[in-house]
Amino acid sequence: MDFDLTSIQQQLLEAARKVIAREIAPSANEMDRRGPLGRSDAQDLLRRLAPLGYVGGILPESAGGMGLDFLTYGLLLEELKRVWASAGGICSITTSAARTLSELGTDDQKKRFIPRLLSGESIGCVGITEPEAGSDVQGIRMTATRKGGRYILNGTKTWITNGSIADVCIVLARVVDGKKLLGPTRIIVDRNESPFEARNIPKMGLRACPLSELSFRDVTVPEGNLLGDVGDGLKTALRGLDLARANAAVGSVGVAQGALDIALSYAGERRQFGKPIGSYQLVQELLADMATLTSAARWMAYHALRCLDLGRPASKAAAMAKSFATEAAVKVTSDALQVHGAYGLAEEYRVERYYRDARCYTIPDGTTQIQKLVIGRELLGLKAFR
Ligand SMILES: Cc1cc2nc3c(=O)[nH]c(=O)nc-3n(C[C@H](O)[C@H](O)[C@H](O)COP(=O)(O)OP(=O)(O)OC[C@H]3O[C@@H](n4cnc5c(N)ncnc54)[C@H](O)[C@@H]3O)c2cc1C
């Protein structure tokens, strides 16, 4: 496969780099320290980044997107996460909500929700995980009871990216129709017409990106908000996982590269025993291993995205890329911190933020262990779980 960047990719990246350096990078550390972004700060971020393709860039032009291929969107994500991982999370999950709507939505649903998401006016989230259903998505308990032309939602979603600030939430719930309990189904919740409670979960990394617990108690939504068919929600949710995994991989490459850049510059400046620490072979070994891991993770992530673009089977490549790149980013960012000595622990040196952020990515879209089971299944044709 050929990974030479096209001139369009180069132009998009150049434009993104300029805006990120001018408008995002200077305040990233300070804003991250303040914790989860509120709605208006997140909207401001989305509005700045939307014209560059970060919000819904992968949607077809007919749906209001830019028709970017997955690799190009991944390159943009890598660039943003190199500077501020939380910002990348807010954009990519809003994009994921818009893409799900563009794939499964009726014309009316597309008209109602997609333009607002793509402009940054609305923020999107996708609610699947529940307190008792993490890796085992089939264990979800949230119900959507059909009654008088409406669905009544009851249940809890947790660890939902953008949850507290989202206007448009796509949830997975079991439809109850009379006495029948039907399969998991996707339902759009417009928070303005169907309010629900949300609280942010204080957490180790990705501090500016809200991860929230959402409580639905008799929340009613119109029947017209059913997304796709009753009972096909799990299938459609799982179908999007290869892309989510490839994006998690390429985002982790961005985080690793950002930490490596900071460590390289520090190793050239910091002097001990009369010489820059970068001249010592053991420090060079750390940096060489970091660069090697980052490079290997990058090619795996690009390969998975390219398979998706070509319509080839991508489950194995995406699972390999996700598990390798997210674990590599943990190691690279930890070693970047080590290169800084005690200063690596100080917030003002930024590198500790990269370490905390990288640590988060081995968990969503299937933990590292789940990715290994997916790889095993692809190799053997035998399932370790249902
Ligand atoms: C940064 C971040 C963003 C997220 N964003 C979203 C979001 O937007 N929407 C959403 O719905 N969810 C989101 N999540 C939730 C995420 O999808 C779940 O955390 C993930 O699926 C794992 O579930 P769990 O945390 O309940 O862990 P568990 O499933 O309880 O796993 C605990 C441990 O057991 C291991 N384990 C579980 N089953 C097996 C098995 N069969 N074999 C071997 N080991 C196993 C796991 O690997 C893990 O080490 C997010 C999580 C994070 C950290």
Please provide a written account of the structure.
With 386 residues, this protein is of the alpha+beta class. The protein folds into 3 domains: 117 residues, Butyryl-Coa Dehydrogenase, subunit A, domain 1 (Orthogonal Bundle); 105 residues, Butyryl-CoA Dehydrogenase, subunit A, domain 2 (Beta Barrel), CATH 2.40.110; 141 residues, Up-down Bundle (Butyryl-CoA Dehydrogenase, subunit A, domain 3). Helices cover 51% and strands 17% of the residues. It contains 11 helices and 10 strands. Strands 1, 2, 3, 4, 5, 6, 7 and 8 form an 8-stranded mixed beta sheet that branches. A two-stranded antiparallel ribbon has the order 9-10. β2 and β3 form a beta hairpin. α3 runs antiparallel to α4 and α7 packs antiparallel against α8. The protein is globular and about 80 Å long. The mean pLDDT is 97. Flavin-adenine dinucleotide (FAD) binds next to β1, β3 and α11.
